[in-house]
């Protein structure tokens, strides 16, 4: 099973890119069904990422990044490089998808995806807003095309 998870905040302009790609992939799969692929919009819920990924062989996460790189830059990173156990906290809002990768592997062991790829798209604008910047929309289109190719090859 391939699980694809889009993360982000729909109210923060370019931060919505992962969610919007996931929603577009859901429409694609409705038109071209693949029984071995599931797509989730997990928004900003890191804990949900951990549970949706459980039982899959392969996991793809899509999110915006803010690293100071060129807006629209796409980074395709092995999940192992981004796994990070959270600091002890009583606030689930602090539990992000990078924490979900580390915690899911620790908790679910072999029932957690061994192959994890993360697509990060460098944001231009993270202010309140409902539209993607044009450069981010272009990058989103490229990532969508690459992921639909992965789906077709499975």
Keywords:
alpha/beta; Rossmann fold; 5-stranded mixed sheet; 4 helices; 36% helix; 22% strand; globular
Instruction: Write out the CATH superfamily name.
Output: HybD-like
Adjacency order of strands in the biggest sheet: 2-1-3-5-4
Poorly predicted regions are none
The N- and C-terminal alpha carbons lie at a distance of 10 Å
**What is the mean pLDDT?**
92
**What is the domain total for the residues?**
1
Helical segment tally?
4
SS-based class: alpha/beta
**Based on the structure given, which CATH architecture is correct?**
3-Layer(aba) Sandwich
Largest sheet data: 5 strands, mixed
One letter per element, helices H and strands E, the order comes to EHEHEEHEH
Helix content: 25-40%
β-sheet strand percentage: 15-25%
Gross morphology is globular
Topology record:
Blueprint: E1 2-7, H1 17-31, E2 37-43, H2 46-53, E3 58-65, E4 74-78, H3 97-108, E5 115-122, H4 134-153
Parallel strand pairs: 1-2, 1-3, 3-5
Antiparallel strand pairs: 4-5
Helix pairs in contact: 1-4, 2-3
Descriptive account of the structure:
The protein is built from four helices and five strands. The chain is of the alpha/beta class and about 150 residues long. The chain has a single domain, classed as HybD-like (Rossmann fold, 3-Layer(aba) Sandwich). It starts with a strand and ends with a helix. It has helices at about 15-30, 45-55, 95-110, 135-154, and strands at about 1-5, 35-45, 60-65, 75-80, 115-120. The mean pLDDT is about 90.
């Amino acid at each position: 099973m391939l699980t694809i998870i889009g993360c982000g905040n729909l109210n923060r302009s370019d931060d919505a890119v992962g969610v919007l790609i996931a929603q577009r992939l859901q429409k694609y799969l409705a038109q071209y069904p693949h029984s071995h692929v599931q797509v989730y919009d997990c928004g900003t819920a890191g804990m949900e990422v951990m549970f949706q990924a459980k039982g899959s062989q392969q996991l793809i996460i899509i999110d915006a990044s803010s690293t100071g790189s060129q807006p629209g830059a796409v980074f395709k990173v092995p999940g192992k490089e981004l796994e990070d156990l959270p600091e002890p906290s009583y606030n689930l809002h602090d539990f992000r998808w990078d924490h979900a990768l580390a915690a899911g592997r620790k908790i679910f062991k072999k029932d957690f995806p061994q192959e994890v790829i993360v697509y990060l798209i460098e944001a231009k604008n993270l202010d309140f807003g409902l539209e993607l910047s044009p450069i981010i929309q272009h990058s989103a289109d490229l990532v969508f095309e690459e992921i639909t190719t992965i789906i077709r090859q499975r």
